Write a sequence for this structure.
């Protein structure tokens, strides 16, 4: 299997953390993808018309995307503890937490493009502020639930951890830990897992 990837992508990191947690890292060959928001990686178009990473190319030529689909596919390939719980309340909780983490990332990645790459004269401050409030409210919600993060590792906590790692990577001055001691304590331990250490963008 070939994974189109870039070390800076938090969505790719989700896939790689799940692969590591389920003992499958060695099955995946990494293929470097380089792009900007206005210069897509044309190599990707044949596999993913959206031109986005992660995209997983199977040995028979089938392409899978996005991170949610790839993670669930990889989880179907191993016999160990599942990262996507079976049908029932635990599954809906994990999927909702994944959606929340992906939403934090959509807001944080979009804001990053706007702030780091767009001409300041063309930036839209109200839009930037609205995106920031999305991830800040979500971090507050995670803080309120931080007591429940410590259970079994699943796709929800993997996504939350990748979102926090991305904030540290791109917004080191955000200070998200300041009013969120429960979340900070959980992440301090989770980031030491081998799956997180070997996929860190720093
Ligand atoms: N919902 C997608 C988001 C993927 C995504 O936004 N990837 C970014 C990199 S972090 C990308 O490929 N951007 C290139 C583009 O949008 O042209 C997922 O979960 O995989």
């Amino acid at each position: 299997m070939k994974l189109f990837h870039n070390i800076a992508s938090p969505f790719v990191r989700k896939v790689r953390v799940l692969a590591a947690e389920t003992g499958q890292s060695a099955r995946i060959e990494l293929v470097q993808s380089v792009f900007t928001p206005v210069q897509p990686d044309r190599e990707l178009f044949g596999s993913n018309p959206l031109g986005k990473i992660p995209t997983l190319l199977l040995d028979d030529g089938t392409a899978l995307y996005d991170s949610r689909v790839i993670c669930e596919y990889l989880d179907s390939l191993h016999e160990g503890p599942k990262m996507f719980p079976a049908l029932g309340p635990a599954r809906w909780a994990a999927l909702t937490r994944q959606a929340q983490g992906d939403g934090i990332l959509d807001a944080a990645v979009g804001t990053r493009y706007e702030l780091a790459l767009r001409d300041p004269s063309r930036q839209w401050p109200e839009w930037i502020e609205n995106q920031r409030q999305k991830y800040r409210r979500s971090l507050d919600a995670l803080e309120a639930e931080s007591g429940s993060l410590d259970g079994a590792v699943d796709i929800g906590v993997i996504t939350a951890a990748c979102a926090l790692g991305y904030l540290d990577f791109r917004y080191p001055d955000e200070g998200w830990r300041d009013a969120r001691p429960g979340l900070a304590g959980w992440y301090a331990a989770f980031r030491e897992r081998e799956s997180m250490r070997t996929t860190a963008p720093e």
